[in-house]
Amino acid sequence: MKFRTLQLLTLVAYLGLINSQRTVLDDKFTGIFRNGKDKIISLIKPRIQQRNFNTNLNSNKLQRQFSEKDNFFCDVRYGARSEKVPNSVHKLTPGDVDIIGAIGDSLTAGNGAFATNPLQLLLEGRGVSWSIGGQGTWRVYMTLPNILKEYNPNLYGYSISEYSNSYEKSSRFNVAEAGAMSQDTVIQAKNLVKRMRSDKNVDMKKHWKLITHLIGGNDFCLNVCYFNDQNKIVEDAANELILVLRILKQHLPRTLVNVVLTPDVSITTRFLNRPDVCKVAHYLECPCMFSPTHLPNRQRTINTIKLWKKRFEEVVKMPEFHDTDDFEVNIHPFLDKGDIPKYPNGNTDFTYMSQDCFHLSQKGHATAANALWNSMLTTESKRLHFFRRELEEFKCPTSLSPYLATTRNS
Questions:
Q1: Where is the signal peptide (predicted)?
Q2: 159, 178, 236, 127: which is closest to 19 by C-alpha?
Q3: pLDDT tens across 378-406, in order?
């Protein structure tokens, strides 16, 4: 336990150094930081891929594995690529999506997806990230891109390595950064536009693009409890989201954006039968919820989280993001309640979570991918606000409803 605590302290200290908020000094020191990060990760990474896969498989932290004989869940004739490229986002099938990208934090970077000890939370499993990973196929790694590849094998932009950083080529259009907060998303949006413009595989005017946005966990855990004016924090975050959506709308024609509501981190305070290492991790990674200093204001933080989500929903519904046929924004609340499946005795099922009981295991990523896919095929008013068990439901396009759901077509 002492060794694991030391690993966690090393991890938190390192993330605090590398992933603090961007400043004007970054251009000078980013190279040094990345160099240090690469050296530390190089000590952790060698020869662990297959070993960690097997360890997680034996611990039931991987999704259900399928063989090549197993058919896909859906008849891909429904939702297949249109005969003619659609001119409206409201006529977009899964097969019409050409380019995929993502903005976010460590939940999108895939930190700890295969971790077998706390220090391995440094490793970013971008290739298996729920919204943007494209490693392998859905049979081994259920991700949104691996689902979409069944409809369009030429899908492009997903991350392709189990362990890669945002600045590596294998990350592609996953611009998420571990430790990111809402104030970092404008930079990420600009970076995403820059990457797409400079990639010869992207036809900016012709290709349909799908971008998934998830941010807020670090704000809730590490930031909001240090400020008295909670309304200002929420308004600042809402304004950041508005700027991000305006950047995407202005520079990425033919784009559908998924805004996924951030998990309610207060759910971690109600986890039952937490391992000791997770108790330490939660104290270090989420002081706004677990530090004795901030316990008196915990309810205020919870109220801020609720207000934050309400404002994000209001931003997504702003008319300026729904006034054209080549841009649309959808809200997806399936992580809203932060619920993790439980065993019959009420204990939390930590097989969905990584070593710190905060990030997701590969099984958790697969379940989140399944949930996002289901939500993308569901009318807004009927979208779920909770996390279902692995593959409890898998929705499919139909002959009557072949399109990705938007405010106008469902």
A1: 1-20
A2: 178
A3: 999 999 888 788 999 999 999 999 999 99
